[in-house]
Amino acid sequence: MADLIQKLQRDHSHMARLLKVLEEELDTAAKSDPPDFQRMQLVMKYMTRYPDEVHHPREDVLFARLLEKAPAVGATISTLCAEHRVLAVKGQELCSVLDAAATEHVIRRDALETPGREYIATLYRHMRFEETEIFSVARARLGTEDWLVIESSVDEQRDPIFGDSVESEYRDLYAYIFSS
Ligand SMILES: [Fe+2]
């Protein structure tokens, strides 16, 4: 019934793993060692595709239905939907910084450090907020018909890293995640 919530929580744990990779690379850069820009670019390529294009739109569908059943969570939902938009913009901005860093090889440390740490902190906080403030309310307030409507409104899209098979461009990243 609440399969979607399970999927969303699974997505969150996958995103947290990838944020940890980003954090480790920023820690490396903070010690003046060269970070693995290609690894960071792949993480952000994933973040701006699967979470921004699949995960967050699915949550938007859930939030819209929940708003009809539990109007009291309206302010929370408005905040979360706004954060989805902000995260998409911040993610694209971080991709641009990484692209510049990878091609020019010289960037100011804070040009990567500041947006990188901010993106990580924002997404962590956002996921925790969703889980504590919304997912439990959705489980309690939505019924079978609501879940059918929600499930019929979301596309089944493959996760390129954590799905049934790993897309070729992400194989090294996948191996790195599960070996560290
Ligand atoms: Fe989420």
What labels describe this entry?
Four Helix Bundle (Hemerythrin (Met), subunit A), 180 residues, elongated, binds fe (ii) ion, mainly alpha
Give a description of the structure:
The protein has one domain: Four Helix Bundle (Hemerythrin (Met), subunit A), CATH 1.20.120.520. It has helices at 3-30, 37-69, 74-104, 109-141, 144-153, 171-179. It is mostly helical and 180 residues long. It contains six helices and no strands. The mean pLDDT is 92. The structure holds fe (ii) ion. Residues 8, 12, 55, 59, 127, 130 line the site of fe (ii) ion (FE2).
Question: How do the helices and strands line up, and which of them pair or pack?
Answer:
Elements: H1 3-30, H2 37-69, H3 74-104, H4 109-141, H5 144-153, H6 171-179
The structure holds fe (ii) ion.
State the share of residues found in helices, binned by percent: over 70%
- Give the oligomeric state: single chain
Q: Output the CATH class name.
A: Mainly Alpha
In the predicted model, the low-confidence regions spanning at least 5 consecutive residues are none
| Backbone structural class | mainly alpha
Average predicted confidence as pLDDT = 92
DSSP summary, beta strand count: 0
How much β-strand is present in the residues?
Answer: under 5%
Task: List the total number of helices.
Answer: 6
CATH topology: Four Helix Bundle (Hemerythrin (Met), subunit A)
Distance between the termini: 35 Å
Strand count, sense and barrel status of the largest sheet are: none
- The CATH H-level homologous superfamily: nmb1532 protein domain like
Specify Rg, calculated over alpha carbons.
Answer: 17 Å
Report the CATH architecture: Up-down Bundle
| Shape category | elongated
Order of helices and strands: HHHHHH
Number of domains: 1
